[in-house]
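Hi L.,

You mentioned the student needs an example of a multi-chain input paired with its predicted structure. This one should do, with 704 residues in total across all chains.
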Amino acid sequence: MNLIAQTVADGLVLGGIYALAAVGFSLIFGVLHVINLSHGIIVLMGAYLALIFSETLHIDPLLTMPLVMASLFAVGYVYQRFLIQYAVDSSAFGSILLTFGVALMLHNIMIWVFSPDMKNITPTYAFTSIKLGPIVLDAVRVSCLVASLVLLSCLAGLLKFSPLGRVIRATAQQTLAARLCGVNVRHVYALTFAVSAAFAGAAGIVIGIILPFSPADEATWTLNAFVVVVLGGVGSPAGALIGGLLLGVVSTLTAQYIGPSFPNVTMFLLLVLLLLVRPQGLLGNAFAPSR
Amino acid sequence: MVLHSKKATRRHVMALGAAVLTAPAIRSAHAQAKTLVIGGSVPLTGAAAETGLNVNNGYITAVSYINDVLGGVEIAGDKYKIDLKLFDDASDPARATTLIQRQIDEGTNFFLGSFGSNIVLPTAAITERAKKPMVQTGGGSDAIFTKGYKYIFGMFPRATRQFAATAAMFKSLQPLPQTYSVVWTNDAFSKTAAEGVRLSCDAAGFKRIEGYELPAKPTDVSSVLGSVRSTNPDLLVCVMHDQNSLLVARQMVASNTNVKLLFQGLGPQLASFREALGKHSDYLCCSTYWDENVPFKDKFFGDSKKFIEYYKTKFTRPIAYHVAGAAACIETYVLAMQAAKSTDPEKVRDALAKADYETFYSRIKFTPEGDGDELLMGGMIGQVQKGKLEIVFPAAAASAKPLYPQPTWDKKA
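Structure written out for the whole complex:
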């Protein structure tokens, strides 16, 4: 019984982090209909920026979050407005090719700037653990899970209650109607991408704290985000959270009871099953009902 | 037209005169510096880039020293400078095979290896088919050395033989450990290395508790550590690449998963790894194939210390044993060519098969299958002690005694 509880707890912690890493990808997919293949590289940019800021300012890596998110918000806005938008305008697949190309370029620039060596963010509490009865949890992972849940809640609140969230939802649901109401759709798209990049950066900090990272990891985080979005549904933090938690729990249960080398097998099996049974994901498309 | 013709004639005469005057000098320069092309690919980007860069830097250091400091090498009475033609394979076996095939088509006769058995294996198949030698320091998988290849030579023993020295070190510990568990990742190198661990440890009489296979890129090892806590082996052996080793070590510390000794094949050798774990890196053991204090003499650099001295004039990157192994590949080629008195690939291959040379890296002698001799080129065991990697086995090369058992993680902090 203890083993099951420990395994599920480990899965939930891991799943929370997967969810945060995927939410930006989900939002861009839901609102802009762009499959952002440079998502993983933006996640890693967050990790590298956190490393730089925490070492330069001598502060806890989680405290670098506002700085990292602000930096990537700006980068995301410019990237979408002045690059991706042109690709979206020109052809349906333009954005996929463009984001793939940008990911390749940034990957190599990162190697040039930071070297291909693995990096690591080590906060002061990196090696402490929390005991809840018989369950032992890694303090770093728990703190990262808490950060993930807070950020996902903030994003859900932003989308639901703020004027910006209303405009994003309106644009996603009825682009033409939003445009007729005077919404600057291109600006909203760029803001959505900027918010997504900021959240990808925040996920990068969390990932950088729990895992060693190097530029070679970018594809892993794009792929994980894709799986989470397909499982949970497109466009909402709740969908990303459900997909992430499901992925995390399935991974740890598989590792424990089938074999540590099998999580990828069950992960993709689940993906295929869900595509067959419920292709819109567990929570569906957050913006679909009004289409 | 006539005037033009006269001018042209004068120019021609002058050019002819200049050519006659400078011809001996050109011939002499040509005689001084024939070019010996050595090709290959290395992973400068992608998953294997961290160690790939070390391998690359080792090749460059040796070639640069031979060309710039020694002015080239003499082979069969001719002076040669080495032209190194290395390309980035991006840690991608498919790209590596394309690059190697292209170099063979262009006439390259000698090859150096990439890093990672998954890349070395398919590229070795191509060079073998073309009957061109490859000397490499990046592939240890048994599959490279058990296919009957005649032209492939490695600077390590094959993976299943690499662990014999470590098992011998385990046997020397007091109190004698009784049990072990082994963890590996799902890739060619780790799987064969784990097989080697099982063979060597079982032969040495240790009782195996569990074997755990992780995905090639694990993100969480808590289930494995839960099992380790419940089965409590004396020794935990992890054979995987350094990034994954760090994940295991960090999660072991955080979840207070204790064993009497943690051996990590790759990881603790790197300064960045030790820095990331801080005091928790103390007592960790690893394999190492070279150390600055090894006693070998060398025809080119003199010894290890002089090699490091020169390396530091070229690179700021911390030195690792793969750098030395890569430089030794170049030296081995040159020594074999000098022994063969030829740059014919077949004759050089035969000389490599008979190699018995001393380099600053180690004594170089290959088995009939092409991997490094188990005794002469087998690994040393390093242990992190007070943040520094000390050689603890074999006794002849040891700079410190092994510390065992390790204290629990909370006592190390």
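You could point out the following to them. Chain B has two domains: 33-156+292-364, 161-288+379-412. Residues 1-8, 23-30 of chain B have pLDDT under 50 and may be disordered.

Best wishes,
N.
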